[in-house]
């Protein structure tokens, strides 16, 4: 089986999963967080080299304050757990998104996590926190404009490769496969530039119930696609 090098996942359905069980939404987020660890291990065993997950979007700030506060608490705890998991599994961690809006203690933990794992040789694990693709591109354009203004960049030399260097995902290959759980079929402002030639896989399974077997189903569907340039089959 041809294994995708880079898989991106939109972790959807935590709240609905919890509600269906008569539990608060925050319980679903906690269980979803635990499932991230399991899928990281399974992905690496399967031969996937890069895994990028959508943990907290720029739009998530619009959720009720108590839910946002609970997510931030969960994030703090996850940073501690992730440090141990990374050491155990030799994972290299990178956070993408605008972390300036996060509290100082969370930013410090992110910095510690990235620094302590930068030389690890296992799974390259990217976590999108306060991430929105339009925000990412806007920030990139501002930096490009500033570099043009200051003479570090010539406008006529700007091409796709130059733009890519200014994105949060610079030096990371574009995803081969995108998975979104829990039935929704939209990108929700996730990796819009990077997903230009990515295969999409949507499943009704909510994230807390997404298992190794579900990941294999997604990879099998990926293998059934024609991966010629542009993802379009040539006419017979």
Report on the structure:
The protein is α/β, with parallel strands linked by helices. 44% of the residues lie in helices and 14% in strands. It has 7 helices and 6 strands; from the N terminus they run E-H-H-E-H-E-H-E-H-H-E-E-H. It is globular. The model is unreliable at 231-236 (pLDDT under 50).
Number of strands: 6
The radius of gyration computed from the alpha-carbon positions, rounded to a whole number of angstroms, is 18 Å
- Average pLDDT score: 93
Assembly context of the chains: single chain
Largest sheet: 6 strands, parallel
Low-confidence runs: 231-236
Estimate the strand proportion.
5-15%
Indicate the overall shape.
Answer: globular
- Strand arrangement, major sheet: 3-4-2-1-5-6
Q: Helical segment tally?
A: 7
- Considering DSSP H and I runs of 4 or more, what fraction of the residues is helical? 40-55%
Distance between the termini: 25 Å
Structural class of the helix and strand makeup?
Answer: alpha/beta
